[in-house]
Design a protein that fits this description.
Layout (H helix, E strand, L loop, with lengths): L7 E3 H8 L12 E3 L10 H7 L4 E8 L7 H12 L7 E5 L9 E2 L8 H11 L6 E8 H18 L9 E5 L4 E3 L5 E3 L11 H6 L8 E6 L2 E9 L3 H10 L4 H16 L5 E6 L1 H8 L30 H6 L8 H8 L1
Parallel strand pairs: 1-7
Antiparallel strand pairs: 2-3, 3-6, 4-5, 4-6, 7-10, 8-9, 10-11, 11-12
Amino acid sequence: VELGDFPMMSHADAIARFGSDKPDLRIPLELIEVKDLMTDVDFKVFSGPANDPHGRVAALKVPGGNGLTRKQIDEYTKFVGIYGARGLAYIKVNDRADLEAGLQSPIVKFLPLEVRQQLLDRLAAENGDLIFFGADRGKVVSEALGALRCKLGHDLDLYTCEWAPLWVVDFPMFEEMDNGAWTPLHHPFTQPTCSPEALMENPGEALSQAYDIVLNGTELGGGSMRIHQYDMQEAVFQVLNIGKDEQREKFGFLLDALTYGCPPHGGLAFGLDRIVMLMVNAESIRDVIAFPKTQSAQCLMTDAPGAVSNEQLRELNIRLREKVADQKLNDQ
């Protein structure tokens, strides 16, 4: 198989266009940002996220998708609910020249004629197309429409090629948790692309020298350049609210080593089982690994986890005891 040069795409571009950091480029559908068009519409489902700095309003055009029935659309609505979406608005384009009667949708009455025209133009929508919308927090919209994109590609057989490799680069260094604290997107030893000063000043804008290799929507492997400078590693720890004492206690050996000089270094680790899954055209990684587990973490071949004898426990210096809450409940 001749794949040629693997294209490169930034993490931000992958999320914006495909709703995923491992996009399947065989599917010719893309998410289109329409947030700026919805700020003043009389439809809070759209205007709310459109005016929220953390919100997103995006559209997914399905060429020729007008043939989807209401039942199918309802099934897709349930599907995106798995990813946190609270609904799935849509517009069927019957006649784009007639902005009054040519657009079929429960929501079209809330959109001014000017906005309708701008939507059709931005999406290059044609007669017979179907447009899905996502409006919520950015992460919810990206994940929901990204998953819908892949499902539509599978259900409607939209694949344009057999193999679509990709390098995804420029991952964010950190992501913000609900409590406002920062956590590393990969791990705290990934080399940022900026200086320690810029990292501490604006952690949310910092990018990392991390990279993933993706094939047909599956991450085959990932890696990064590692931090090799003392001041950079210290800055990362400070952003993560790891104080000096904790740094010394947990990572003193590493910080000491970095003071003696360390060459730039990095690598890439492949997931062999995922590669085999693609090679044999399996639907799940569980079809190709030696001892697959069920969703309840049981191994049907070895019946693990099973009972452990007292002799085995004594050999490992392990003692089992009931949970305190369970014991109190039993005492009552």
